[in-house]
Queue: 3 jobs
Job 1
Amino acid sequence: MILKGFEALKSFLIKPKNIVLIGHRNPDGDAMGSTLGLQHYLTKKGHKATVVVPNEYPDFLHWLPGSENTYRFDWQNSQSQKAINASDIIFLLDFNALHRVGFDMQKTLEKYPNDFVMIDHHQQPDDVKYMYSDVEICATCQMVYQFIEMNNDLDLIDEAIATCLYTGIMTDTGSFRFRSTTSKTHRIIADLIEKGAQNDKIHNNVYDANSYGRLLLLGQALSNLQILPAYKTAFITLTEAEKKKFDFQKGDTEGVVNYALSLKGIIFAAIFIEDKEQHIIKISFRSKGDFSVNQFSRNHFNGGGHDNAAGGKFNGSVEEVITTFKELLPTYKNELNRSYEI
């Protein structure tokens, strides 16, 4: 764990400040839950807090308390720039490096004259003045809870804060099934429920709000599934044409890679998604046991994340990324076969 400048930050925040909170590009449940949850907390402490997200986030997260007041940097650029320029400090939540917000927003943040606070659980974070980093914690939303706890303010957690933090922990732990989910996580979840988080409604809002197109897209993804038993590996592909055919919306591929990992005997899974807008192949990796997809992605696909969940990107076609991926696997055959999960 890295806890840097915490006492100085507490002193800085004694008086009301103008604060901006930022999550990573293509925000997920943990990014939105942590930024909105912390926004509600800071507002209760007397600060003016504004959430700015790099781009659109999934429709199944738009119900989160405070979501309607967020700014999108790509779409509401003047409002976003105004908020950033007027801020005294910026909180960076659920990402470890400025490039994770996208090129345009990164350039804006690199010119920012004031200080950053980073609260994040990904490996190898950038160095900023104030930092709370812990790769052992399952979700940034749990870290926000513990940040509030460090400030002796757990009594300020209300239904809105509890709902946001519960959502992020639930989504980043795969509904509490990943190895990073600890007994402390469950104790925090219990407290969030006691403080107003309605676990059944949150689950329904996130997981039981599928569109017809999203289910058909999932069917297409599963029909594209390929298995490489010699390497205990499976992967899924989705082309731009397939996405368009089923009316793809932001968030529709969230969690699809886990279906490949759910196969018996598989310890390494990937999904390759064509993204014409960014001219890349977006990649998500998942693994079981000791095989680090964080290191695999850093080594070969300009990405990173956690040991068992990471992302990356590839400049080329779907066919080319598949070829590259298959050519890499023999190098990792022994590591894959040594995983304790199988």
Job 2
Amino acid sequence: MIPTVVYAIPAFVLLVVVEALSYRFLPDDDERGYELRDTATSMSMGAGSQVIAVPWKVATIVVYAAAYTLVPWHLSASSGWTWLLLFFGEDLAYYAYHRAHHRVRVLWASHVVHHSSLRYNLSTALRQTWTPMTGLPFWLPLALIGVPPWMILIEQTVSLVYQFFLHTERVDKLWRPVEWFFNTPSHHRVHHGSNNVYLDRNYGGILIIWDRLFGTFEPEGVRPVYGLTKNIDTYNPLRVAFHEYAAAWRDVRAAGRWRDRAGYVFGPPGWSPSTKG
């Protein structure tokens, strides 16, 4: 089974080329644009993620199908209410997934890949994890309330395609009502900023309302500084993919107590034992 998003890849690549050309012919001193090695790394990460996604999607749909068959109620795919429920339910699941992957280090080790570029452009959207297995539990409740698994996968694809277009500096703030309800390039630039004021903000997928409801919203103000709080300074795809797992393992091995080892795995990124012991 080929993930649906694979069919959008040629369009993604074409749009990356168009945006890169726009920087060539319409440069902006305030925008960083593209750098060949960075873009090549993002493309490599995207290609690798899709190779892994094919067998993993098969495993995912098997799990969702098993959960779906266990429940005695099944929602009708022909009902508009089912699709509306799925739209909000999938977006809330993405918010929970995204927030957890910023707040739990073993999950962050997978997601950090997407934040590792010092640039912010459409190619950054393709810089995806090679360990997508941590996402499965977050969408499982949708199958358990009776949403057909194929519908879940379609809505996940819609969300991913939408989010591709958020990764650009070429679009300023949009019409105010759009900025209030939907995730926009402005909101997502904040999410990719390593500035203290922007850390762990704006987790939304298509909608930004969850961040407003749960207190994680931050509007774009000062110019975002992209990348990590401690950048890895490499274009090597293997290091980009696995550097945080290696760092966490080093911390676990060096820890002297089991509660500290657990903290290094399940605590937030940057966690360290209290000086008070």
Job 3
Amino acid sequence: MTQAPTPTADTVRRLIRTLLKDDGGGAGHAPGPDVRPVADGAGTGTWWVGDRHVLRLAPDREASLRQRRELRVRDLVRPHVPVSVPVSVSRGEWAPGLSCTLDTRMPGGSAEDHRVSAVGETDLAGLLTGLRAVPARQAETLGVPRAAPRSLEALRGAARAAAEHLAAADEFDPVRLGQLTQPAAVQLGIQPGPAVLTHHSLTGNHLVVSQDGRVRGVLGWGGAVVGDPAEDIAGLAVAVGAPAAVRAATLAGYGARPCLRGLWLARCDTVLHLAEALAGRGTDPMPLLRVRLRRAWEAILLERVTDLRGPEDGA
């Protein structure tokens, strides 16, 4: 496979002039807007362009396919959700066979840095409600894959082993995982029902939050799948805390079972991710992973619910 060239500020500026040539961005000999990588380090694929746009460069052909699908998914989702979804103002190729998109930049920070307010929780509820309203079959015709629900029993077993390693490093009390018993894991197994379109990566960095705590936009739609809605509840538990995630999901019409399933998916995931980082694997810094674990393990009253029998409500 041909190696993609390493993007530099000069190549990005030339690309921007090409992408914006129809609206005067390449006229004359003007130097063009300021460009800088979003993340430190050479070879970054995401660049700030002035204060209005962000340029995303797909690093390989597989990523190019995902990016092109993401643009279609964003257009499909936009009419259904109350928060902003990025708009591509120009697209093309930055190297042979490698796609790029110049998107509008959303004002605000991430949920990693800004607390979501009570009104922001209603924004998240609207997001979950809107995703459930998107016709799943229509999403699949755009190439969105269908993902099988994860086994909470298997995840519980892996998390228990990881928790022992964390305990040895004084990072986590494995007794806390005892709240998720084997019968409870079975009871919180996926129930029959229609799959829905899920963002599947509702991390704090993908939630654009304003200073007043409103959720103004959602980024990162490249991993969207048709599958288990509890995965998005789990993502929110890690991003904004378990109580806020459950309140948002409840406002969106989800009942106790999907909320508790999402909660335990998040808790097991955060234990596993912290253990992987402790073993020298993974790319996220330990302090961030500790914050995510703390958020997912925040106590909620719903944990006292033990009887989940009866008609499923919203899953």
